[in-house]
Write a structure and sequence with these properties.
mainly alpha, five-stranded mixed β-sheet, 12 helices, 6% strand, globular
Length: 267
């Protein structure tokens, strides 16, 4: 089923494409000063490698001007972005000392409990590593380059944090942000998305190690769990004294940029 652009007063949050998983609009949430996050400005999703010809007309209707690719170099090489408008070039960043679930899991027991602890460690590490990526996203929006697509592989972990920080900067309640994050659990079966693309690129590789994990570990890995995102928030609160401190000292976004971003993103 290919997504269609709604003409109703409330657009659809989840946009369905043949070649996408977990593609959705972050608009409509109550924000600061009685305002609301604009629809059709920021989309969050997973990998952009598998769109079909049938998806292209609806993708072009979105009017996307930028793609914020949060992945590492080797992920981009394995699964290059395939957006139907060649003028839309993904924003990318250097890997640096990238935290990976594989690295954390190697230090834990090979079971569901070990994977759960690894996921918490990953989310605690993401705020520091993702600061330049989040700065790039904020500057992209503030300079009028929206609509923008924000994505990683599954559209859950790195994308989840980036969107959580963006919504926080717009004054969306933390409870609402966590609810948005949890939509991933019903927005698409990422494991099935991988399985059905075996023999294609990257995540569809028949030798994909994620699929070789025991089922109980995969359930923990593929889930959006509120405690994961809360671990990132706790890190931000403890280390940076909250979102404002994180944005000013780690992301390094000034008040003028924030004000302009809010002007673009709120209605």
């Amino acid at each position: 089923m290919t997504a269609s652009i709604s003409t109703e007063s409330v657009p659809p949050r989840l946009l369905e494409f043949e070649g996408a998983c977990n593609f959705r609009d972050i608009g409509g949430y109550a924000a600061m000063n009685g305002r609301q996050v604009r629809w059709g400005q920021v989309y969050r999703t997973g990998v952009l490698s598998y769109f079909t010809d049938q998806d292209h007309p609806s993708l072009l209707q979105l009017g996307v001007r930028a793609i914020c690719d949060l992945r590492r170099d080797e992920e981009r090489a394995r699964e290059p972005t395939r957006w139907p408008d060649a003028a839309v070039v993904p924003m990318i960043w250097e890997d640096g000392n990238a935290p990976t679930i594989r690295g954390f899991a190697a230090q834990r027991t090979r079971d569901a409990a070990g994977m759960y602890e690894s996921m918490l460690e990953l989310y605690r590490a993401l705020p520091a590593w993702m600061a330049p990526r989040i700065r790039g996203l904020f500057e992209c929006i503030a300079t009028g380059k929206a609509p923008v697509v924000v994505h990683c592989s599954a559209g859950k972990d790195r994308t989840g944090l980036a969107i959580a920080v963006l919504l926080s900067a717009l004054g969306v309640a933390r409870e609402t942000i966590i609810e948005d994050y949890l939509i991933t659990n019903r927005a698409g079966d990422f494991e099935q998305f991988i399985v059905t693309r075996q023999g294609q690129l990257g995540l569809g590789d028949a030798h994909q190690p994620l699929l070789a994990m025991p089922e109980d570990m995969r359930r923990v890995l593929f889930a959006a769990d509120a405690t994961y995102l809360q671990a990132a928030f706790d890190c931000i609160d403890r280390k940076y004294d909250g979102i404002d401190g994180y944005l000013s000292t780690s992301v390094r976004i000034g008040d003028d940029t924030l004000a302009t971003l809010r002007k673009h993103m709120l209605t």
